[in-house]
Amino acid sequence: MKAFSIKKYDKRGALELTDIPTPILKDNEVLVEIHAAGLNLLDAKIKSGEFKLILPYKLPIILGHDVAGVITKVGKNVKRFKLGDEIYARVSDFHIGTFAEYIAIGEDDLALKPKNISMEEAASIPLVALTAWQALVENAKLKKDQKVFIQAGSGGVGTIAIQLAKHLGATVATTASEKSFEMLKKLGADVLIDYKKEDFETILKDYDVVLNSQDNKTLEKSLRVIKPGGKAISISGPPTREFAKAIGANWLIKTILSLVSFGIVKKARKLNVGYSFLFMRADGAQLKEITSLTEAGTIIPVVDKVFPFNQTSQALEYVESGRAKGKVVVKVK
Fold first, then answer.
1. How would you write the pLDDT of the chain (333 residues) with one tens digit per residue?
2. 46, 123, 237, 332: which could join 38 in a potential S-S bond, CB 3.0 to 4.6 Å?
3. Predicted TM-score (pTM) of this structure
4. Burial degree of 254 (CB within 10 A; 0-12, 13-18, 19+)
């Protein structure tokens, strides 16, 4: 099969198209013929080596976390899926590789693809929707009439998180450029802040939850718009000692992450605000909930561009440029 891989960590390097054997199935896996793959900033960060401390991959690796496709083989212990099922998934860490024609995926990572959307739209959803779900439902336990500030509303996570927060009954504030305001209003944003002209810290006050996806300076400002007892959840860092424990990291990484996050944790405590770093995980059961919301029209995927499979490297460059509104997808089949 054809696949796009990297042989070394390199921020500027292109993905390399290779011919490799089709994966051999384990008993708890299915073989998926990939129809579309979603691209994420995580792919770019792994390519550059930014996450090698917490995700020590053995090179070469095929990149890609999001997939939509059709099951063509089923392992003998698989119970919930069958040959011919249309599925989508965010595959588990250390089992990635969706920039390819086929992939073996563990049953627990899978959900049936929403029936009302295309393969390309389905491939755009898993990583960003699971991030939003794990931040707002699982971690923040966001409730009706609470206020949430979702940064970078026009990005992949932002477009889904706004819709999920509105479904949960929250008031949603977000930052974006003015040209994205119309789209974000349709998705349900209540308070729109033009990050080029306005300072969110002067506009927002007493928020219950902030979903931070920006730099540390923005995170520090965000702590000050949260009411005492509220939560800041960051998907862009800094990672904490608690996160290191959760992934079973060794003492050295725990120590490094304690030092990296010391300043922000101290500032949060002083303001009586909770701070946590979220590195989302694959979860087929949660994705099944997201399927229901998508089929009900509660969550609508936002796809910026679809690239052909042979332009996967260019598609990743576009993601890295930061210009995408919503998600970028490659059409494999």
1. 999 999 999 998 899 999 999 999 999 999 999 999 999 999 999 999 999 988 999 999 999 999 999 999 999 999 999 999 999 999 999 999 999 999 999 999 999 999 999 999 999 999 999 999 999 999 999 999 999 999 999 999 999 999 999 999 999 999 999 999 999 999 999 999 999 999 999 999 999 999 999 999 999 999 999 999 999 999 998 999 999 999 899 999 999 999 999 999 999 999 999 999 999 999 999 999 999 999 999 999 999 999 999 999 999 999 999 889 999 999 999
2. 123
3. 0.97
4. middle
